[in-house]
Amino acid sequence: MKILLVDDSFITRQWIKDTLSPLGECDIAANGEEAILAYKLAFEAQKPYDLICMDLLMPVMDGNQALRAIRAVEQASRISAVHQVKVIMITACDDPKTRLDPTFLNGSTAFLVKPFTAEDLLQEIINLGLYQ
What we know:
The longest helix has 14 residues, at 63-76. By secondary structure, this protein is α/β, with parallel strands linked by helices. It has a single domain, classed as Response regulator (Rossmann fold, 3-Layer(aba) Sandwich). It has 6 helices and 5 strands; from the N terminus they run E-H-E-H-E-H-E-H-H-E-H. Helices cover 43% and strands 19% of the residues. It has helices at 10-20, 32-44, 63-76, 96-100, 102-105, 118-127; strands spanning 2-6, 25-29, 51-55, 86-91, 110-113. Residues 97-104 have low confidence and may be disordered. Strand 1 (2-6), helix 1 (10-20) and strand 2 form a beta-alpha-beta unit. InterPro entries: CheY-like_superfamily (IPR011006), Sig_transdc_resp-reg_receiver (IPR001789), ST_Response_Regulator (IPR052048). Pfam families: Response_reg. This is Response receiver CheY associated with MCPs of class 34H. Residues 2-129 form the Response regulatory domain. It comes from Geotalea daltonii (strain DSM 22248 / JCM 15807 / FRC-32) (Geobacter daltonii).
């Protein structure tokens, strides 16, 4: 599995990388702009990401903006919804009304609310069908 971890917190990126490295190759990005660049480079090299774990709130470009750009690349390339990269949006926002709002989810496949455990993250990946 090829994974992109996007978070402005070095500690969070490192913790997620340590958690997911046994599952596959993990690349990291510190903001949405870096995430879009990493996604495009992997896509152009025909080695796309299977999973992106992305923080919602980041400087430079937030997770929603980055995800919209990634989904636009997929749409322009006529990638079906089934074959789109799975995206787990990570947020500190724990308001149930906000979490269930489709505009909040903005094309993400799933979400996790901080703080979460390694088990929570792995269970979400299992739920997405990326790991057994």
